[in-house]
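Fold it.
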Amino acid sequence: MPITAAADLQSGPEALPAYLKLLRQRGASTASINQRKHFLRYLLLALDQVRDDSVAYRHAVDQVLAKMASDESRPFLVSVAREFFPFWMGDLETVMALAAGDGFALQPILLQSSGSLIQLFEAMDSDGWEEREIPSLTQYLADTTPPGDEEHVLDLRDRFLRALHFILQHQPVNPATYRAGVNAMLLLMPRAQTQRSFLNLIREYFPYWMDNTPGGDTPDPSAPPA
């Protein structure tokens, strides 16, 4: 599969052609492309003069949805906004992974949404996920936590990965759903440094999550996400 869409990537409004090119490369229908393009053109107008700011992006999405989304179309458009986010940010590494692997879905993946990380963590805790046993997470932390590592760092890694599992709890285990969950969480992170740290974490965790099935082999921690 050629990855010319990734090679053409620019951040901000110039990202739309690269996103649409990837959709065409993946065989999306004209109707599906046009529906996405119509919404994203309005979104880009709302994002005029904004760069590299997930908070502003999320506010712009809410603003456009309030104006043009029906109850029926809202889940689809929210998913499209999450899907487009790494293109708008100019995240070449993520877009190249989407173009080259299986982390891109022609049919948007519908996930529950939260207004902030705090709301996401509160929903997770109220549903009992703070203490839930997650074998792949336990194995990952055992394999990657060096002796003497500070407890708050371990707790933070556990917290973020539990939240990812919580978001994806009703989804099949495949690269596309993983990427959708990651994008949903990135939108809740206001600081670029937090986003970068989270991306490093989820890239390392990806093979463990993919092995989240009974009786699976021990994953290779060096295997990259698709």
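Residues 192-210 form the longest helix (19 residues).
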